[in-house]
Amino acid sequence: MFCAISGEVPQEPVVSKKTGHLYEKRIIEKYINAEGKCPISGSDMTMEDLLNVQANTVVRPRPAAASSIPGLLAYFQNEWDEVMLETFTLKQHLDATRQELSYALYQHDAACRVIARLMRERDEAVSMLTALDGNGKNSRVMELENEEIVTTKKLSSAVLAAIERKCQELSAGRRAKGKQAVAEAASKEYLSNISVLASHSPHKSDKPGINCLAVKSGPDGDMYLTGGNDKNVVISNLAGTTIATLSSHSKKVNDVAFHPDVNSNIIFTASADKTVKIWDANNNKYSVGKTISHDSEVTSISVHPSGDFLISTSDSGSWNILDTAEGVSLVDVKAEQSITCGGIHPDGVIFTTGLSSGALKMWDIREQKQVGDLIGHTKSISGISFSENGYSFASASSDGTIKVWDLRKTALVRSHEVGSPVSSVSFDLSGQYLAFAAENRIYLHVVKDWDQIKQLDCHTKLVTAVCWGKSASSVISTSADRTIKINGSS
Description:
The chain is α+β, with helices and mostly antiparallel strands. Helices cover 24% and strands 38% of the residues. The chain folds into three domains: 1-56, 2-Layer Sandwich (Herpes Virus-1); 65-130; 160-488, Methylamine Dehydrogenase, Chain H (7 Propeller), CATH 2.130.10.10. It contains five helices and 31 strands. The chain is elongated, with a radius of gyration of 34 Å.
């Protein structure tokens, strides 16, 4: 028997009538005089509650096994093993508790952000209602209406007819095209064994870093279009041959795109110099055909499936529908926050913008009306990719998550925590696979069961863009380390 306070064998044992705990008499008397409570249960206790215990004070002789040095060493070893086992168990419990605490803190932080946003929106709504003018509208509402009249122009009937015609054409052929893409796509086993086939550094080294990437599959193989911090745009191929270097922008290039027609030489580039440039080539000698100026840095460009229109986004919070033949802006739609990226639906009717706040807004480009507002990310959107199946798209964010959305329900169907800011995301043409990049790593997943196929550690710095090659047989990526990597199987 041991004292409940000191943990030692008591010389004068006493037991509490109320709690049944055993104490050393001199220790518990001091505690009762000082606190007047039971040190274990916290209940009131007096000296009358203590009962003396008649115990045999004769010390038993040590067992024979503990009377020799080997026996004592064995006892010490057993006690040491028990202490180590208890310590290991405590460490396991500590790690589990830390993980639970970390998850709880993450949830609390996310909840605080949502509450703060909702309170801000509530306050704005209340202020708008309480500041009504004589006509029943406050100044902010009138300002927004006036701004819409000034900044929003309706698309012409010819443009609307072209968009609708292309949408119907693509919708009608989607099923057959999807089956063909699935049949031609590389297998999961093939992708699990890919590795770096080629590595090129086509941009200048004085301002290292490639910011964007586009891939075009043609009869002669894949071609790669890259834009860098060196203000240049480079067209190259698998062999590392530089087909053309385009120099016209005065600041870093943020996004690039090929014309969707495989036989076209037209390419599109967007830059921090507030311009979108349309290039054309004669015998691979590219020149700027049209330049469209914006009021702020252009953050992304998305080519309409027809190739006749281009949608650009800017950090001032606007997106523009551009006529690629005339080189003019058809519509300029203002948003409330900085737009970091955009993505166009395969049918060419829906356009999605990613905001610096983490929100995703869906627009019908025919009427420039918002048709969806997806909330889930907590930080800036870094990438949007639509699946060719027509109803799924994925978003990447600097909050370290990948989210897959279903357009039919405008709902989130999958959320994957990467653990570090995600910089790019891309569906393959068949819609079976999803590639995304975080820091210097690239992850390949099967979309249906979210099985991870491969993790590629081929770059030394941040991966800025990732794309699929023809039939998902290769994965191409660019990085701040100034290289473009082609991963495949020989």
